[in-house]
Amino acid sequence: MSVQLLRRKFTVEQYHKMAEFGILREDEQVELIRGEIIEMSPIGTKHAACVNRLVNLLIQRLGKRIILAPQNPVILSDNSEPQPDVTLLQPREDFYENAHPQPNDIFLIIEVADTTVKYDREVKIPLYAEDKITEVWLVDINEQCVEVFSEPTADGYQNVQKFRRGESLAIQAFGDVKISVDEILG
């Protein structure tokens, strides 16, 4: 006999109320994925350094053409509010003070992974595809590569490319901007 567990799914609004009322503390590292509150992995030094390199590179190369949002939430749907490592957003005068960014505000999402590669690849990237995020990069610190996902569909990304050290890639929305894998990985 199998036991079926009932799970309580939350909306983004309920998730925000939990933070507002102190059920979730501000210092808790959690994100809302498909209605479930997921504890995020601690950030190690290699992961943090890679995010810092990306922030530095992207600001230098793109400047005021974007708003760069490191480790900030994006609202994908009524039940998902992940916190990607780096998000390139459409510029807005309010810098998203009045609302978190949504899919149509996003040029690119970058996830940096060392301990979370499987989770990012199997859970977060398909979620981004479902919500039509045009381009996602997965920086795999262990494999020393950058996987680029584009052409989103409900079934996932139709185009996946892997770039290794010695190679360069361009951001789809900014084809004039080239970044080498070596610059990203250090």
Which terms would index this structure?
single chain, 186 residues, alpha+beta, tt1808, chain A, two-stranded antiparallel ribbon, 4 helices, 10 strands, 25% helix
Q: What features would you describe in this structure?
A:
The chain has helices at 12-20, 45-62, 117-130, 181-185, and strands at 30-33, 36-39, 67-70, 86-89, 106-113, 135-140, 145-153, 156-164, 168-171, 174-180. It is α+β, with helices and mostly antiparallel strands and 186 residues long. Strand 6 and strand 7 form a beta hairpin. The radius of gyration is 17 Å and the shape is globular. The mean pLDDT is 94.
Brief account:
The protein is α+β, with helices and mostly antiparallel strands and 186 residues long. It has helices spanning 12-20, 45-62, 117-130, 181-185; strands at 30-33, 36-39, 67-70, 86-89, 106-113, 135-140, 145-153, 156-164, 168-171, 174-180.
Element-level helix/strand string: HEEHEEEHEEEEEH
- Corresponding CATH superfamily: tt1808, chain A
The end-to-end span amounts to: 53 Å
- The CATH topology, please? tt1808, chain A
Determine the structural class based on helices, strands and strand pairing.
Answer: alpha+beta
* Tally of helical runs: 4
Percentage of β-strand residues:
25-35%
Q: Tell me the Rg in angstroms.
A: 17 Å
Strand order of the largest sheet: 3-4-5-6-7-8
Helicity, as a percent range: 10-25%
CATH architecture heading: Alpha-Beta Complex
Overall shape: it is globular
**Main sheet attributes: strand count, strand direction, barrel closure:** 6 strands, mixed
